[in-house]
Amino acid sequence: MSRLPFSSSVYQNRRNLLINHINEPILLLGNQSVGINYKSNSYRFVQDSTFLYFAGLNLPNLVIYIHQEEVILFGNEFTVESAVWTGPLPTLRDQAAEAGISKVLPLSEMKNMVASNTHFLPPYRGNHTLLLSDLLNIPPSKVEQNVSQKLIRAVINQRIIKSEQEISYMEDSLAVTKILHETLMNNCLTGKTEAELHGLMLQTAASHGCTFSYRPIITKNGQILHNETYLNTLSTEDMVLADMGVQTAAGYASDITRTFPVDGKFVGEQQFFYELTLKAQQQAIQSIKSNANFLSIHVEAATVIAEGMIDAGFFNGDAAEVVHSGAYALAFSHGLGHAIGLDVHDMENLGEDNVGYNGEISRSDKFGMAYLRFGGKLSEGMVMTVEPGIYFIPELIASWKKQNKFPTLINYSKFEEYSSFGGIRIEDNILVTKDSYRILGEPIAKSVEEITK
Ligand SMILES: [Mn+2]
After folding, report:
1. CA of 91 to the centre of ligand 1 (A)
2. Are 256 and 174 in contact (CB under 8 A)?
3. 239, 232, 229, 298: which is closest to 268 by C-alpha?
4. Partner of 423 for a Cys bridge, out of 261, 370, 376, 391, CB 3.0 to 4.6 A?
C-alpha cells in the first residue's frame, strides 16, 4: 500500500515524458528544512512542488537525478538513532520504491555523478544556488544564467495540464475550503473580531488535517488586496472579505474568495456592487474553454464592471474606452486570475511570464492589466482561478485624481463618496474543458440569497 498520492507508474511516466523531451540529464532539488532561530527549530517543511510532482517524496534533503539510463534519488538513509526522535519510519529505499525509484545513493556521492550538461530549474532558495554552484562548478552569481529554459518549458507543459486524479485531489481540498468559508459566514456577527474568526479558521482547517495553501485573508478592509492583519472588530454595516484555501496531504492547493455582509444584511450600495462583481465573475467563467485567451476573458470581466459603474455614474463614456484606456483599473486593480495546482500561483518559481504568457499574447504594461498573472491561451485540463473584484482604494483614488488621470472618463467626486466602502472579490477554481468549463468542488454559498439572512 503506497503512502504516496499517486502510484509508482504515474511518477515513472511523468519522468519518462520529461527525460524523453530533454534528452540530457536533469537535476530536481527537493527542499531542506529551514531553521527559524536555530537549526532544529524549523519552519513547517514544505516540499518543492516540481520535486513532489516527479518524485512524490515529501521529505527534506533529497535530490533526484534523471537521465536516460536510470533515475537516482540522492538522500541519506535514516539512522537507528533518528527513530528516537521521529518514531519508526520506512527506509528511504522503501519510500523511493513507492515512487518507482530503485536506486538510492547518499548525498555525498552526488558530486561525482552529476554531469556538466545537467539541466536544472531556477533556484529560489539560497542553499540551492550554493548546491548547484558546487555540483556544476559554476560561481553562485552565474547559476541563474545557466538555468535550463528548455527544462522550464517542459515542466510547465506537463504540470499545467491536470490529470483526473489531480483534479480529484483539488476537489478534496475544495471540500474542506467550502467548510471553512461556510463556517466563517455562519459565525460572523457584529462584535466579533477578525482575530477570533482567524482563530476559528485555523482550528477548522487543522481539525480536517489541512494546512492553508497561503496566509488567509479575513478582513473588513477588502480594498487592501493582500491584507494579512486581523486587527478589527466587525460592525453590522461591514462586509467581510475572506480569501482562503487549504491543501490536503496530497499537496494540491485551493484558492476561494467570498465577500458577505457581517450580519447577513447588505446596507447602502453593497448589494449593487456585490451583484455587479458576481455578474462579472459569471460572465468570465462562462467564457472559459480551451483555446480561449485568458486576457480576453479578463477584458470581458472588466467590461461588465465598467458598464455597471458607468450606469451608476462612476465612469463616463463608453465601456470599451473605459477598459482599453486602463481607467477601469481604479475599481478593479488586479488580474482576473491565475493557474493553480500544487502551488496556489502554480509554478511561479519557474517565471510568471513563462507560465502565463507563452505564445502570441504579451503582458500589458498598463496598471491593473499588468497584474494579470496569466494572459495566454487556455488548454483542456488547466485549472484557473476566476476572481474579479471591485474596490474603493482611497490612496489610489487620491493619487490618480492628483495626477489628473483619465479626467474625462472618471468621475472622481463619485469615487470619493465611496472611499470608505471597502472591497468585494468573488473567486472560484475552474477546470478548462474542451468546449466549456467546470467549477471545481461542491458549490460554496455565493448568490445573494445564500449569503444574506
Ligand atoms: Mn487567487
Report:
1. 38
2. yes
3. 239
4. 391
CATH number listed for the domain at residues 8-159:
3.40.350.10
Return the domain boundaries, the chain: 8-159, 164-451
* Half-sphere exposure in the Cβ direction for 97 (13 Å, CA): 7
Which phi and psi angles does 225 have, rounded to 5°?
-65, -40
* Interval between CA 389 and ligand 1 midpoint (Å): 11
Distance 28 CA to ligand 1 centre (A): 27
pTM confidence score: 0.96
Q: Cell 483555446 belongs to which residue?
A: 291
Q: Kindly tell me the sign of the dihedral angle through the C-alpha atoms of 415, 418, 420, 424.
A: negative
Could you report the per-residue pLDDT of 246-295, keeping only the tens digit for each? Answer: 999 999 999 999 999 999 999 999 999 999 999 999 999 999 999 999 99
CATH code of the domain occupying 164-451: 3.90.230.10
Cell 492589466 -> residue: 369
pLDDT tens-digit profile of 202-233? 999 999 999 999 999 999 999 999 888 999 99
Phi, psi angle pair for 46, to nearest 5°: -125, 120
User: Distance between CA atoms of 344 and 443, rounded to whole angstroms?
Assistant: 20
